Amino acid sequence: MDRRDSQCPYVAGNTIKLYLKIKGEELATDAEVIRLFEPFTLSSAMVVRIACSSLAREGDMVLKLFDRQFATQLQEDEKLRPWTSDIERGYHQFVLDGGASDFITELKNNGEIAHQGETWNTCQDEDYLHDHLSDLYETEAQIYDALRDLQGHDVPQPVPCVKMPGFSLTDPKPVSELIGVSGILLQYIDGFPLTDISHYTQREQWQSICEEAIQILHRIGDRGVLNEDVQTRSFIVQKDKACSEKGYKVFMIDFALCNFRKDYADDNNWSESKAIQDEEGAIGLIMQDRLEGGFVYSRSNRYKKPAHYYE
Q1: Annotated domain spans of the chain
Q2: Rounded alpha-carbon distances, angstroms, from residue 135 to 59, 115, 157, 182, 228
Q3: Average pLDDT along the chain, 311 residues, taken 10 residues at a time
Q4: 192-310 falls under which CATH superfamily?
């Protein structure tokens, strides 16, 4: 049985219960699912409509939930057993008995156990998924905080602390944090992926749009962020009459797989890591090839690979 065959709450027209943390206060609200961004990868992303005056925002928003049941990419990468309702019941009991908390503690304190995934039982698999996705959520929330001055201009404005409570399968009451789901609410950018600009824009606009995407990458990097998962679909292009020069504005999304400058030993280590990752090449080279002459990529050489990289 595929995980998506379970009673998935993420269906257009459904309403899901959320808790938002705004200015230190936790507020309960309902979110109506308007449409999904599929396929789900590391998170479940969807457009939602929320009636919550404390948000001080109007219109639809994007909800990203780091839900282990529907993290399709991570499940496939880790070659996990197919999900079943029996596995879910077993995991809930594992949480309630304290085994899940003990396993996470061991996982964080014992590096060896992280390499023993093939020997884990299904409850430990689910526990690992939950913990790993919690880490991805924390990273994305921290990145948005670090990019505070770019919010609403280069990246969407976020509400980075959202919880969907977990419930017991036998008693409809909230249970442990190890079953609840963390998420982020984002300003909804009504546009299209950078990948598809040839379908939505004129050829003469491709150069400036792609260059803007690369400049956004540079501005984010200047704030001490290295992105290990730069994709052309990580950029949303929105028609914007205020941009008289090209008529379009670019935003970057998806920051769960990022590192911070503070995690690197020194400037050389940071610069080399940025060069090897080649974030701008992941956009420039791909779009140059895709647009077949409609965009010419000029490498900035902001970061240079170490000499030994070519040996």
Answers
A1: 3-187, 192-310
A2: 29, 18, 21, 10, 15
A3: 57 91 82 92 93 74 93 84 84 92 89 75 93 95 96 91 72 69 93 96 95 97 96 94 74 97 92 94 97 95 72 51
A4: Transferase(Phosphotransferase) domain 1 (1.10.510.10)
